[in-house]
Amino acid sequence: MALISEYKTTDLDVVEQGSGDGEKAAPPAGLQAVGHQHTRGLDRYINLASVVNFGVIILASWESFAVTFQFALTNGGPASIFYGSLLAGFGACVVGFSLAELASIDPTVGAQYRWSANFAPAAPRFWGLLQGWITTAAWCFACSGPPSILANMITSLAIFNNENYVPQRWHTSLIMIAVMIIPFAFNLCFRKVLDVFEMTGGILHIGLFVVIIVILIVCGPRSDPDFVFKTLTWEESGWNNPGISWGLGLLSMTFSVTGVDSVLHMCDEVKKVRTRVPRSMIIAVTVNSVMLIVFATVLLFYMGPLEDVLDTPLPLLWVIYNATGSKAAANVLISLIAIITFLALFNIFASVSRLVWVFARDNGLPYSNFFAYVHPTLHLPLNALLLIGSIVTCLSLIYIASATAFNALISLQALALHVSYFFPILFILIRKLRGPTPPYGPFKMGAIGIPVNVFALCYLVYVVLWMPFPQLLPVTKDNMNYAGPIFGAVVLGALAHWFLRARKTFQMPVIRYE
C-alpha cells in the first residue's frame, strides 16, 4: 500500500534544516510521502544548547518537588518520597526514551497526536483527533500551574517577612495574572531573549541545586536513616491504609518529572531536529530524574522534624530558615527558585502556543483558521499565544470564586499528559511486535526497545490509576479530586467534535507504510 501524507511539511518528507545552509536529510528507510505542502510559517533558529536547556528548565524536577512536597508528607511521608522518587525517576526515563525514539522517527510539533495516527492499527484519524484534544487540553491547563506556584511562593514570603499579613484569594489571583503577563510579553520577542533566558535558567537550575544541597548537608539537622527509609505516614489523610497513602504520595514525584514532550512542540524551530530534539529529551529526563532523587534524599535527611514543616504553605522556606537561621538566606534562595519557575513558564507559553497552532492548522480545534495564524513579522503563532494567556487569566479569576474549582481544572494536567504518552508508545510497541519494522530515525533503542516500552506502559498505567483518588478523607466538595471527571469531559468534547465536524474536516497527516 502506498504511503499517503497530508501533513504540511515535516522533516521526514521535506528537509531537515541544518545550520542555515539548506542541508538535506533523507527520510527514514521505507518512508516516502506524497501530497500537498504548505509554508511552515516558522523559522529554524534554535541551536543545541538552547533546546537542551529548554527541556531541562521546563521539567525543573527538583524545583517542582521542592515547592510541592508537603502533599507527599501527608500521604506516604518520607518512605513514599524516597522510594517514590526512585520509581518516578526510572519511570520518567523509560517514558522519555520511548518518546525520544518516536521523536527520532517523526519529529513534529503535534507529537503525540501525530504519532498516534501514524501508528494506530485502526481508525488513525480518530486516534489523532482524540490525542490532540487530550494533549492540548493538558498543556493549556498546565500553563496555570507555574503562576499558582509562584503566587504561593510570593504569599509565603510575604507571611514569612510579615506575620500580620493574611493573604486573600483575590491577592493570589492578581499575583497569578501579574506573573503571567511578563512571560507572555517576552514571548512576543521570543527569538531575541531565548538564548539569554535558556542560559540563565540552565545555570540557575544546576548552580542553585548544588548550593541548597550543600547548605542542607552542612547546616541542617541530620535525621535517622529509619526516618527516611521506614517512616510511612497515612493517618493524616484519613485513608488509614499504608498502600493507598504510598500510591497517593507517589504523585508528587511523578508530577515533578512530567512534561518531557514539551520540547517536541518546538520542533519546527529547531535546527537538525531529528537528532537534537531526541537528544535534548534524553538529557532533560535523565538529568532531572537524577536531581530529583538526590534532592529528595538529602531533603529527607536534613529537613528536621515533620511537625516543624507539615502545616506550612511552603515547607522548603522553613527548612532553609531552620538550617541557616537566616531570613535573608531563606528569602534569597526561595526567590531564585521563583526565577527558575518564571523561566519555565516562559518556555511553557512558547511550547503550548506552538501545539495549539499546529493542532488548529490540522483543523483539530473550533475556529481553527483563527488559531492557525502566524504573525508575519513576529514569526510566531500570535492568536494561539493569546488563547493561552486568556485561559490562564480566566483560571486565575476562577480562583477568586473557588480555589477548589481552580485546583480541579489544573489537576487535569498530570492525568491527561500520562494518558497522552500511553497510546503512541502502545502503538509503536504493537508495530514492533507485529511488523513491519518501524522506520527508525537516528536514535534507536535496539534490543532493549521492547522491554523499555513495556515497562513505560506499565508505569503509566500504575500512575494513572492513582490520579483520580482524592487526597483526603472524608471526601467533601472542597477536597474532591475532580481530575477524573474533567478528563472525561475533555474526552466527551473530543468525541462530540469528531462526530459533529472533525471526521470530515480534520486534516490529520495519516501515514501508511508500504
How would you portray this structure in words?
- This protein has helices at residues 48-59, 61-66, 70-74, 77-105, 112-119, 124-142, 145-161, 169-187, 190-219, 225-230, 242-256, 273-302, 315-324, 327-361, 368-371, 382-401, 403-410, 412-434, 449-466, 483-505.
- The chain has a single domain (48-505), classed as Up-down Bundle (Amino acid/polyamine transporter I).
- The chain starts with 47 loop residues before the first helix and ends in a 9-residue tail after the last helix.
- It has 20 helices and no strands.
- The protein has 514 residues and is an all-alpha fold.
Explain briefly what this protein structure is.
This protein has 514 residues and is mainly alpha-helical. It has a single domain, classed as Up-down Bundle (Amino acid/polyamine transporter I).
Index terms:
514 residues, mainly alpha, Amino acid/polyamine transporter I, 20 helices, disordered N terminus, disordered C terminus, transport, membrane
Secondary structure elements and their pairing?
Blueprint: H1 48-59, H2 61-66, H3 70-74, H4 77-105, H5 112-119, H6 124-142, H7 145-161, H8 169-187, H9 190-219, H10 225-230, H11 242-256, H12 273-302, H13 315-324, H14 327-361, H15 368-371, H16 382-401, H17 403-410, H18 412-434, H19 449-466, H20 483-505
